[in-house]
Amino acid sequence: MAARGGAPPLPRGEAKTEHVRTMFDAIAPRYDLVNRLMTFGLDQRWRRDTIDALALPPGSAVLDVACGTGDLSRLAARRGYRVIGADLSRGMLRANRAGVPLAEADTTCLPFHDGAFDGVLCGYALRNFTDLPAALREIVRVIRPGGRIAMLEVDAPASPVLKAGYRVWFNHAVPVLGGLLSDREAYRYLPRSVAYLPRPAALRRLVREAGCSGVGIRPLSGGLSQLVVATRVGTPPRA
């Protein structure tokens, strides 16, 4: 995938998997701090919206894929869900303080039985999956029929004014902030990684093809983030 402005091309295939793993290992110790600063604390509201969207009763079994340091897991556990977190990055798992069981796993090969969970959460990871269709199929596989998916991801505002400010902040200020507090190269990569993310219509189609219905995508805070919600139907298709 070509890059703009002379930046190196975005990695693909196994090179992307290893890049994502090592990058998140490196930024794990200050990941939460940088998140709060670069979103002005709005990420916590968006995570609560994501858990609200599951609309499952207390006691439901929920998997947090690409759980990172455990923000979504912690909030979900407070709602009374029985949560397990899974992540590719061992560094992120070491920094996880959610107090829930954890598994080191690639989302394209989850170590759980078919239909083991009532719901799946995912925060800001869709663009980091090397094979997004395979990851979505695996997510759907581990949910029971009728189970719910709620996935939080970055977005771009529709308003020209908001979009201009967003681009300056996300593409220029965030890499500087990340460089001061964490790893400069990682926070240069993260804004560029949005190029991996399918357009809403294509993303909705991928989620349906993975075995879901009622796929909805809605912007949060004017389009600063987006929330993808769906329900598993029947037996998901195999690749």
Please render the helix and strand layout as text.
Elements: H1 13-27, H2 31-38, H3 42-54, E1 61-65, H4 71-78, E2 82-87, H5 90-95, E3 102-104, E4 117-123, H6 132-141, E5 143-154, H7 160-181, H8 184-192, H9 200-209, E6 212-220, E7 225-232
Parallel strand pairs: 1-2, 1-4, 2-3, 4-5
Antiparallel strand pairs: 5-7, 6-7
Helix pairs in contact: 3-4, 7-8
User: What is the mean predicted local confidence, pLDDT?
Assistant: 92
- Sketch the major β-sheet: 7 strands, mixed
| Total DSSP E strands | 7
Radius of gyration from CA coordinates? 17 Å
Number of contiguous helices: 9
| Category from helices, strands and their pairing | alpha/beta
Query: How large is the share of residues in beta strands?
Result: 15-25%
Domain count: the total is 1
- CA-based shape: globular
Describe the structure.
This protein is of the alpha/beta class. The chain has one domain (13-155, 197-232): 3-Layer(aba) Sandwich (Rossmann fold). The protein has nine helices and seven strands; from the N terminus they run αααβαβαββαβαααββ. Strands 3-2-1-4-5-7-6 form a seven-stranded mixed sheet, sandwiched between helices. Helix 3 (42-54) crosses helix 4 (71-78) and helix 7 runs antiparallel to helix 8. The protein starts with 12 loop residues before the first helix and ends in a 7-residue tail after the last strand. Residues 1-5 have low confidence and may be disordered.
List the main descriptive attributes of the protein structure presented here.
239 residues, alpha/beta, Rossmann fold, 9 helices, 21% strand, globular
